[in-house]
Design a protein that fits this description.
The protein is of the alpha/beta class and about 725 residues long. The chain folds into 4 domains: about 10-115 and about 245-325, FAD/NAD(P)-binding domain (3-Layer(bba) Sandwich), CATH 3.50.50; about 125-240, FAD/NAD(P)-binding domain; about 430-540, PurM-like, N-terminal domain (60s Ribosomal Protein L30, Chain: A), CATH 3.30.1330.10; about 540-718, PurM-like C-terminal domain (Phosphoribosyl-aminoimidazole Synthetase, Chain A, domain 2, Alpha-Beta Complex). The chain is globular, with a radius of gyration of 29 Å. The relative contact order is 0.10.
Length: about 725
Amino acid sequence: MNEHPLPLTRDLVLIGGGHTHALVLRKWGMNPLAGVRMTVINPGPTAPYSGMLPGFVAGHYSREELDIDLVKLARFAGARIVIGAATAVDRAARLVHVAGRPPIAFDALSIDVGITSTMPDLKGFPEFGVPAKPLGTFASRWDVVRNAGDITQIAVIGGGVAGAELAMAMQFAMKGKAEVTLIDRGPVLKDLDGSARTKMLGALAQNKVTLCENAEVVSVDDACVHLAGGHSVTAQFVTGAAGARAHGWQSEIGLDMEGGFIAVNPQLQSSDPAIFAVGDCAHMTANPRPKAGVFAVRQAPVLFDNLRAMLSGGKLRDYRPQRDYLKLISQGRKSALAEKLGTAFQGPLLWRWKDHIDRKFMNQFDALPQMENARLPQDMASGLREALGDKPMCGGCGAKVGRGALRAVLAELPVSGRADVRSVAGDDAAILRTGGVTQIMTTDHLRSFFADPVVMTRIAAIHALGDAWAMGAAPQAVTANLILPRMSAQMQSRTLSEIMQVAQDVMSEAGAAIVGGHSSLGDELTIGFTVTGLCDRAPITIAGAKAGDVLILTKPIGSGVIMAAEMAGEVAGEVVAKALETMMIGQGAASGILTGAHAMTDVTGFGLAGHLSGICEASGVAAVLDINAIPFMAGAIELATQGIKSSLFEDNRGGAGPVFGADGPQGDLLFDPQTAGGLLAAVDAAQAEAVLTALIAAGYPAVRVGTIEAGAPVVRVI
């Protein structure tokens, strides 16, 4: 009996990639609840681990070691990740608002967004200061400061444990080239008891951190921290670690609050039972505790169980926080202080212990099980193993039929005898002549390779429009063709709403109108569009390239190998996020700049080599590609060097025709299937420089990648 995915019936949304949510995602991947679509919303593809931040600032850890990769984690959990900041929660409509996209519906919601140490009421701080939290923003800014090497004065506002850790870490990282001042309105480290405070003050002195105590900060500018009484502290970099503030939008949800934080009961529920809150953004009303990562980590199993119970009708359980906890405090160099129940010790041995604990925590997000191929039955038809291949089938253009097989089938079709159909064999779109008007028509669809329907819709729309843009046509009318995964009627409505809002935005921006479409249910999400376009001049086909033309490419390549690696959990989430951003760049303006091209195509499923071969065959010319001029997406060459390839790679290499010199990892990427790729145009050499200048001015990373030569239709790579 064939197995099919179970229908989706409930939406679970996690706002924030904090420690609790990261652990919940990991547990969910090991034991998901059938019928639930999980979504995690975070401003970036990674979430820094607070325990290692001082070590990162000091230079003991790299940024990769500091960050939890939420893209990998979401893939493992079977969740969609939305890279964006939540701005509001509409409790009545059960919607989360995220800038730049349609709202996201939820049946159960959990919030784990941490805190901020920004000081909006301190004059000048929003413009010139950098809050220590959120951690991701601070880590990125510190990277710039540390690498620049031109900062000689640093000020840290807030003399608590967090401020002291940062001050010592900064002083150590700057290797004596900068003076670090720790400022507090009272005594520094006043919340630490006896011996712990004494030892920490000694560590601050050993690290040569200047203390400025009992000082009231009144303003910050680009050169100083100004204090009450007319005093000031010179500083080119100012950070704030004073106190903990909740993000402003939390107070507007309409939940019970405590000091700006979401009040939660022992089950981690807010005053709205469908909304949970954990970590530093929450206040535990029954058992108040300080803001510390240890509580967030230990909330994870309870939150995991209670979210499942909420979505399945089960019984919720209580979270009982410990009364005291071990505090491990970094001291700049590889030394740490440990304090619990009033007893404190310090030294390098404690740093090694802290380092072991932190790495153990992070290792559980690196050591995620890999995707397995389908298990083959004992009895099977001949050729099944070979057809399945050694890796999961890619999505997007990586799921296309190979160029060789497609050409063989199309060659068998009879030539149309209609006078109003004037297509060039192998071109991007059909060319139609109706009532004296030249119209193009094309259709494209993508098998989903990323769990977010909004991202997939934008990419699919850009991809479909690419064929019209490649012909130099102005997009006109569009129909949508959708296959949704099996889901309840309510979730169908939610998903269709997201898809169609984004489709409308993209098509309207391109100048086209959505006039209809078709939808159905299936095993997985597939999004496609049929597009017509109008040409006010002769369409640009693949058949007009001339010897001497310059080849111009408007986007880097490498999306196929990156998304293949993403499916296998073998690429950094930041690389994936940048690749998705590139795929979502439309080519309408580029098409307008390239209206004088002799031949043009969009680089998609057959790869750069395959599509260039198509131009050569149709035009009766040869081409030369300069491998060192070709732009590659960040991370693509490294992945190709590791031997990672799209499942369509072999078909593309075999079906590309005569391509010589495509050797090594960069050569392999010439056959990498692209989704929503750039335009490849053969432009008159006399116009090439002006065209490139115009493309770059319009924001496209366009480059000259080769030339067209007279001769048999071959591609030479040099």
